Each structure stands twice: as structure tokens, then as C-alpha cells.
Amino acid sequence: MNYAFQNRYMLNASLRADGSSKFYGDQRWGFFPSIGVGWVISEEAFMKNQTTFNNLKVRASWGKIGNASVPSSLSVLRVAQDPYLTAIYGGVANTGASINSIVPPTTFWERGVGTDIGIEAAFMNNRLTIDADYYNKKTELAIFDIPILASVGTNSSKIIGNQADLQNRGVELSINWKDNISKDLSFSIGGNISYNDNKVLSVTTGDNPIYGGGAASTGGSFSTRTIAGQPIGQFFGYIVDGIFQNSAEVASSAQPNASPVISNTETSAVLKANLMEKLTDLTERRSVIRIQNTHTVLTPAGTTNNLI
Fold this sequence. Notes:
About 0% of the residues lie in helices and about 55% in strands. It is mainly β and about 300 residues long. The strands form four sheets. A ten-stranded antiparallel β-sheet has the order 1-2-3-4-9-10-11-12-16-17, with no helix packed on it. The protein has a three-stranded antiparallel β-sheet with strand order 13-14-15, with no helix packed on it. It has a two-stranded antiparallel ribbon with strand order 5-8. The chain is extended.
């Protein structure tokens, strides 16, 4: 439902009912409402004589969304009949079987509950625009894998289910300028900045961390953990003194088999400008200018054991 009154007051609301066969029993259906309101202050009578704002609007919204991105048939107990399970009795090959999965507890819809408050403003004949937002999103009953003991006998040593409640909140600010150099040439330039705070509110394991990572970069050791009160998947490991920069540092260390790093340069654009030249009434040529912030990423040369 969408409603607007005198182009000043706006309301939109919706209610979704989603069903998924990936869940079972009474948990197949999820209901997700949302509502948003807006107030165009610049359309009010007391703003008619002001010349600062071409547009001034405040808005707020609240809503729920659902996530059903989980493997199908979670409730099915899987049995493997691989060749290595074959046994021979009396000269006859008999196929064996092994249960290699665990049926997780009842799995519910993962729900995202979000609140957003923002302001939009335009100045100087709409050439300068500013958007600012504050958001607070809580993920309830987040679905992901957690490791379990390998001695349980599963293929993956993991079990999937609703494992944690998470929170992301922060602010975003966007500023843009657009103008015409001539009737055939225009440009726009803009930038944005954001801040996000991520925190785990609760986990089903209580005070026990959920460990993850463990790829080749850490020699197979777990490199992240998820624990209540901290960011999800925070890096967790030894405190190091630095990174080997050359062979001389390696030779004088207690790790003579380590390798220094090589430098790979990566860039990320932080500012973009558009130049548009009108060639004819129907065609135009666009040029993009990027101002980039360059940073260096250090990569091990040969081996990953490169910490001092």
C-alpha cells in the first residue's frame, strides 16, 4: 500500500507471507511486515519563502525480511554406501552403509529486522545534494554451519541450523554535486562515507566460541571465532611483531625456513567524476575520471610462514 497527501506526507506498508518447503512442520511459513513514512518539509507553507533548500525530506522505515537460503532436505538422514564400505564374507562382496550426516534441530526462518532513519536535502538549484542515513539491523536466528567433533562421523564435521542473533548498525553519508559547464557539457562529482558496527548478540553455544577459517593461509589452524559481544567471524590468533620484509630479516630470525613478502598493489576508487558532452540531440559521450587511493597488500613469497 502506498499513500501520499499533498506531496508532503507519504506512507507505504506491506505484509508478506512466504512459505518454503526447506523447513518442515509449522515452520514452513514466515510473515514479514514493513512500514515507511516520509515528510517533505520543503513543501510546507512555512518553507515557501526560504531560499536555502530546494528539497528537504525526512524519512523513516521499519520492516522484517526472511532468509530461506539453506540446503534442501535438512530433515533427511543421509546414508552413504561408498565402495570402501564393502565387506567380503564367504567370497561374496557385501555393500556396507554408514550414516554420515546429522539431522539438525528444528530450523526456523532467519529474520532480518531493520530500522532506517534518513534525511535528503538539495541546495543551489539542486546542484548539491546530501543524503544521510542511520540504520540498525538485527538478524534473528541466523543460519550457518558450526563445527562439531570429527569423531561424530559426519562428512563435513559441521551441522547447520539457527545459531546466533547478530546486529549491524551505523551511519552513511553521501554528497554529490552536478552542474553544466555549457549546454552541451555537464559533470557530476560525489563521495560517500559510512561506518558500520557489527556485534554478535547471542549464540546457541553460550559462552563457547564458534571457530572457523583454517584455510592454507593459517596452516589449517582456525583463524576466526564468533562469540557473543564481539563481531561475527573476528580474526583470532597470535600477536605478531611484524612481517618479514627481506631475506636478511629471515636469516636473523628463529624461522630460517620462512620467506619474505612480495608487494601486490591494489587500488580502490574513492572519488568519481563524470563528464558528459552532448554530440547531437540523440547522442552523448561520457568520460569518467577517477581519483584513487592506493594501498599495498603484502603477499608471502613461496611459503605462508612469514610472521616474525
